[in-house]
Automatic annotation (TrEMBL):
This is Pyrroloquinoline quinone biosynthesis peptide chaperone PqqD. It comes from the Bacteria. InterPro entries: PQQD, PqqD_bac, PqqD_sf. Pathway: Cofactor biosynthesis; pyrroloquinoline quinone biosynthesis. Monomer. Interacts with PqqE. The keyword Disulfide bond does not apply. The keyword Transferase does not apply. Keywords: PQQ biosynthesis. Pfam families: PqqD (PF05402). GO terms for biological process: pyrroloquinoline quinone biosynthetic process. GO terms for molecular function: quinone binding.
Length: 104
């Protein structure tokens, strides 16, 4: 654990909870790629191109929004957002160390 962020957990094998606050890992950055004309997730020597909803989820991973708030925000943008799919997506990113979560 990072002493500057004592409540940070990574990785999670059981999944994220609704009260968790996801944030991009320190070495990861979400940016817009002009060549691809879409957002990309970058970390040293690796680039991931998330689909549209994945990029929307990552955009809200700022450490302030809880997982439940992310689901609600996406639900306001789109008609339906399966909360379990958002949690599974975030859990995979936490397991890969792209995203960290803090206890809510």
């Amino acid at each position: 654990m990072d002493p500057a962020q004592p409540n940070t957990r990574t990785p999670l094998s059981v999944g994220v909870r609704g009260s968790d606050r996801p944030l991009l890992a320190r070495h990861v950055r979400l940016t817009f790629c002009r060549t691809r004309r879409r957002r990309i997730l970058m970390r040293p020597e690796t680039v991931m191109v998330p689909n549209g909803s994945g990029a929307d989820i990552l955009e809200l991973c700022d450490g302030r929004h809880t997982v439940d708030q992310i689901v609600a925000e996406l639900g306001a943008r789109y008609r339906t957002v399966p909360a379990d799919e958002v949690r599974r997506y975030l859990t995979r990113l936490v397991d890969r160390r792209w995203v960290e979560v803090t206890d809510g």
